[in-house]
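Lesson 9: reading folded outputs for more than one chain in a single document. The general rule is that every protein is listed as its sequence immediately followed by its structure tokens, and records are never interleaved. Here is the first one.
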Amino acid sequence: MFLERGYDAVSVDDIAAAAGMSQRTFFRYFPTKDEVLRRYRRSLREALLSALQGRPAQEGAVAALRAAYGQTSEVDASSRPRVHALARLLIEASDVWAKDMGETILDDSVPAELSRRAGADTDGLRVTVLAAAISSAALIGWNNWVTSDGTDNPADYVVAAIDMLGLDISD
């Protein structure tokens, strides 16, 4: 419904009716309408962390995070139109997007995994800044794909943006 009518044009009543539940039941699962989209965004962050943790142990921290972003932003050609439309929807729901970015910035799971890989303290400034820089570059790459026609693979945009940082991927 969000894709068909736009985020703002869909009410909680609309969502509940489409799901065959009452508004009250909807609120048992989601405290707000925003949470429907934010749950999706959280699943993407969880997929990134899982991909990062699944990278080969001998791979450097920066190379592993770069590869995890590339892996999780890979979209096969047949799925691109739907993913592109959903990504546009997420960006256009600016209040939801802003809340999600705040949550992402405060999430320490990626810096913690980078620290584990690098053998550094989880609260190390270097690791936190690296994670933030790579995540920001990945986001910018993704957003550039979202504002494109969506026919190319978004992973190409994401990895190219990360590479613009000029980091040593053996790190």
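And here is the second record, again sequence then tokens.
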Amino acid sequence: MLQSLALTWLALNGTINVWQIALLGVLQGIINAFDIPTRQAFLPETVSKENLGNALAQPAVGIALYSSLVSVSVMLGPAGSRFASTLKKLTLITDF
């Protein structure tokens, strides 16, 4: 979240450079490299023992839910950013 906020802040202030986008992109890749295995490691703790076999036997369900979450984020993230940028241009947001 902090990486995304940093990118948003730089973009809204108009002080963003290509190297900053690349650096934040690499940082997001590192975050994802730890995020996905961590979520998979917590699976046995979030599902009861009776249902653990079903949860492990049907990984496609978990993948489908995660994929839909990513898809919604990809659609809403840029839309929210554009909305905030438009509000700033209309001088409705002056704190940035």
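What the second record shows: The mean pLDDT is 77.
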